[in-house]
């Protein structure tokens, strides 16, 4: 049985730290080592993607059934939720996405976290969207806490379209 204090995101933090370490080593290594490190980075991303699903299921299991449908299946919801229930929903959405480290720097992750937190303050948003944005912001901040503001990803391969978050970060930082 899992302890109530078990943090399902702890292993994701380990994967983020590991990925950032491989990126730093990649930048200093020769072509043979870079090829090996590239395979290791891909493996870490695969492991973290599987772990994200597991962490989400753990967070999901802590939600009441009606709230679970509201969050996971995006079903309508017609009751007030307590602050502790809102925190559980926020935890569900705060699962950090290690694959963001492929394209986003520490500064970009931090800026996006601020942006999402700001969007969550919009009074026109429904409560699920606001809590979802706050959770995503928390997930990005947790990545920054692990890899640091100075983290810089490898350049995206030439001709690769940047992910949406990279596009948003670039627009936000260049205004």
Descriptive account of the structure:
- There is one protein chain.
- The protein is mostly helical and 175 residues long.
- It has seven helices and no strands.
- The protein is globular, with a radius of gyration of 18 Å.
- The protein starts with 9 loop residues before the first helix and ends with a helix.
- 31% of the residues are buried.
Tell the overall outline.
globular
Helical run tally:
7
**Percent strand:** under 5%
Cα-atom radius of gyration: 18 Å
Biggest beta-sheet profile: none
Count of DSSP E strands? 0
Query: Overall pLDDT, averaged?
Result: 88
Helix and strand run: HHHHHHH
**Alpha-carbon distance between the termini?**
50 Å
Q: Which structural class do the helices and strands define? A: mainly alpha
Q: pLDDT below 50 for ≥5 consecutive residues: which ranges?
A: none
Helix fraction bin: 55-70%
Which helices and strands appear, and what pairs or packs with what?
Blueprint: H1 10-27, H2 31-61, H3 65-72, H4 83-93, H5 106-120, H6 127-147, H7 164-173
List keywords for this structure.
7 helices; single chain; 65% helix; mainly alpha; 175 residues
Short note summarizing the structure:
By secondary structure, the chain is an all-alpha fold.
